[in-house]
Amino acid sequence: VQLQASGGGLVQPGGSLRLSCAASRSIFSLDAVGWYRQTPGKQRELVAHITSGGSTLYTDSVKGRFTISRDSAKNTVYLQMNSLKPEDTAVYYCKANLGSTEYWGQGTLVTVSS
Questions:
Q1: What's the distance, Cα to Cα, between the start and end of the chain in Å?
Q2: How far apart are CA 12 and CA 48, in angstroms?
Q3: 24-47: b or e for each residue (b if 16 or more CB lie within 10 Å)?
Q4: Residue 56: count of CB within 10 angstroms of its CB
Q5: Residue 55 confidence (pLDDT)
Q6: What CA–CA distance (Å, rounded) separates 54 from 50?
Q7: Beta-bridge mates of residue 45
Q8: Phi and psi angles of residue 28, each rounded to the nearest 5 degrees, phi first
Q9: 3-class secondary structure for the chain?
Q10: For each of the chain's 114 residues, which pLDDT tens digit applies?
Q11: What angle do CA 78, 84, 89 make, to 5 degrees?
Q12: What span, in angstroms and rounded, lies between the C-alpha atoms of 27 and 10?
């Protein structure tokens, strides 16, 4: 499984961005697809994920601001990020689970700064 993440950039506090994670196969064939983020010196953390059945999970710090969704026709999972804060600045990665195997996409940098 190959994953292509995109959509990062520079945005002011309070602004919005939408990240995309395009998969090389049907996203419904994957057990789950998630978005993670990492800042220097810190461990990569789960931001949100969506299972093949459509269940979603968010880390507390993004609840009510971020929304994970998917487009089966495009084999793409999105992360809509609203009301961005400077502490959301990180490299964002998407990951897919298929059985016991994890597949990672390359990161996309999100910078929230005025």
A1: 37
A2: 22
A3: eeebeebebbbbbbeeeeeebeeb
A4: 14
A5: 96
A6: 6
A7: 37
A8: -75, -15
A9: CCEEEECCEEECCCCCEEEEEEECCCHHHCCEEEEEEECCCCCCEEEEEEECCCCEEECHHHCCCEEEEEEHHHCEEEEEECCCCHHHCEEEEEEEEECCEEEECCCEEEEECC
A10: 999 999 999 999 999 999 999 999 999 899 999 999 999 999 999 999 999 999 999 999 999 999 999 999 999 999 999 999 999 999 999 999 999 999 999 999 999 999
A11: 85
A12: 28
One-letter amino acid at 28 equals F
Structure tokens at 114: 């005025």
